[in-house]
Amino acid sequence: MKIPKARGLPRAASLLCCLLFWQLAASHHWNLGLVTFANVPTPLAVIEAAFGLGDSGKLIQHLTASLGRVFAGFLAALVIGIALGLAIGRSKCAEDLLLPPLEVLRPIPAVAWIPLAILMFPSSELSMVFITFTGALFPILLNTVHGVEGVDPRLIASAKSLGAGRRAILLEVILPGAAPSIITGLAIGMGTSWFCLVTAEMISGQYGIGYYTWESYTIQNYADIVVGMLLIGVLGMGSSLLIKHLGGLFTPWHRPRGKA
Fold first, then answer.
1. Cβ contact 20:9 at 8 Å
2. Which uninterrupted H or E stretch holds 148?
3. What is the rounded CA–CA span in Å between residue 39 and residue 61?
4. What pLDDT, in 10s, does the model give residues 32-77?
5. Structural domain includes residue 190
6. Sign, CA torsion 160/163/166/171
7. Which of 35, 83, 217, 235 is the most exposed, fewest CB within 10 Å of its CB?
8. What is the rounded CA–CA span in Å between residue 198 and residue 212?
9. 157 CB contacts (<8 Å, ≥6 apart)?
10. Are the C-beta atoms of 209 and 231 separated by less than 8 Å?
């Protein structure tokens, strides 16, 4: 997605202002009452820690481990979430049977799944993938349901009048109509997968950005904590933008309304 220069400049200025505030607050140990920056590392300290992580040779191992866990959980959530969303959105019986237990599970935070994940899965790797899966599942599921329910009934009736069967209606009417909402759910789900990563990698492991961030916290390497946080933020933002871009390529008929 190409950003016009007129919009790119204020975005860059916004980031620079945030960095300047961070530098001033951390270097001068500002105490703002409810919030204190006495122990917050400066941007320069974080940059030095980032270079130290790169020089250690462990960055690629951390990235590879985390990307594998996030994308494995996300792909499983994509398949199951869209399938359940289509069923619930199209069938009152499926809605009555499936939605109540899913709604009970939905508010449970990722950290609460850790003990059960350890008990359910034979390896810590599968447990970590499961935690990222739970983070992505519900945004994908609910947006799919919303998209399916939002399809104009007149389009379905028109397809039936032309002799379309259930399969044709699903593939040529329901899915194209629900696709924009599904893509939104996929983008949100990808972000929440990264959100759950630190929780997932608390279980076990020697590598991963979440594990690196948690380990840095336990040994009080504050600059390394921020490096891990920023890596998760950048990777989460980049992967969500990738999902939106791919979604735009697969839905050329849908163009969001422009902003004034």
1. no
2. helix 124-149
3. 29
4. 888 888 888 999 999 999 999 988 888 999 999 999 999 999 999 9
5. yes
6. negative
7. 35
8. 9
9. none
10. yes
Query: pLDDT, tens digit, for every residue of 120-145?
Result: 988 888 999 999 999 999 999 999 99
Q: How far apart are CA 227 and CA 216, in angstroms?
A: 10
In this predicted structure, the answer to whether residue 186 has a pLDDT above a threshold of 80 is yes
For residues 224 and 67, what is the distance between their CA atoms, to the nearest angstrom? 19
Q: Is residue 2 part of a domain?
A: no
155's tokens: 């389009």
> 83 is written with which tokens?
């399938």
Q: What is the CATH number of the domain that holds 234?
A: 1.10.3720.10
pLDDT at residue 2 greater than cutoff 70:
no
Place of tokens 């989460």: 236
Residue with tokens 């409810």: 34
Q: What is the pTM of this model?
A: 0.85
